[in-house]
Design a protein that fits this description.
CATH architecture: 4-Layer Sandwich
Largest sheet: 7 strands, mixed
Oligomer: single chain
Low-confidence stretches: none
Strand content: 25-35%
Structural class: alpha+beta
Radius of gyration: 15 Å
Distance between the termini: 27 Å
CATH superfamily: Ribonuclease Z/Hydroxyacylglutathione hydrolase-like
CATH class: Alpha Beta
Mean pLDDT: 97
Strand order of the largest sheet: 1-4-5-6-7-8-9
Number of strands: 14
Order of helices and strands: EEEEEHEHEEEEEEEHE
């Protein structure tokens, strides 16, 4: 059994910025990745409704990192557990755990991938097509090769190599269209 992945909003970063927002479903798990800045909340809520998902059904939200362009609309999913690099947050409960290898569903797990920030995580999703990596290791398919905001470019390169070694069929970057790695 694999997970279903849908891109709710394709991000961009030029004179304006929006994160790529992803929906992943498997069994009872309904997961949103990076509900950050978008031109309007309808850019998240309308595609979600089109897929038959109410925001109250979202069980988990993953932040690839804590920049506002990836977290700003988290409050749309008030009943969800929130995941980052070191903990799970729900209501007033903070549960420490390492992200690396944490499983949100049988086909969805987190991978620590520092570089853009020291706290970045990638969401790995096994789909019918193969492994998909939702990550900020790439801004878009076209780059930039050197991340202008990277906390540690060498670490980012090592994290990119780690993800590519897993053989993903698709990469969903932080601010652009999904692409097949070369």
């Amino acid at each position: 059994m694999t997970a279903r992945l849908d891109i709710l909003t394709e991000g961009y970063a030029d004179d304006r910025v929006a994160s790529t927002v992803v929906l992943v479903r498997q069994g009872d798990a309904v997961i949103v990745v990076d509900p950050g800045m978008v031109a309007s909340r309808s850019r998240i809520l309308d595609p979600l409704a089109g897929l038959g998902v109410d925001p109250g059904q979202v069980t988990d939200v993953v932040f690839s990192h804590h920049h506002p362009d990836h977290t700003l609309n988290a409050a749309l999913f008030a009943g969800a557990r929130f995941h980052d690099h070191w903990a799970i947050y729900q209501d007033d409960l903070w549960t420490d755990r390492e992200a690396d290898g944490f499983e949100l569903a049988p086909s969805v797990r987190l991978l620590a991938t520092p570089g853009h920030t020291a706290e970045d995580v990638t969401t790995l999703v096994e789909t019918d097509r193969g492994l998909v990596a939702c990550t900020h290791l790439w801004w878009t398919a076209d780059g930039p090769e050197v991340d202008p905001l990277a906390a540690d470019q060498d670490q980012l390169e090592a994290s990119r190599a780690q993800v590519l070694a897993l053989g993903p069929v698709l990469i969903v970057p932080g601010h652009g269209a999904a692409f097949a790695p070369a």
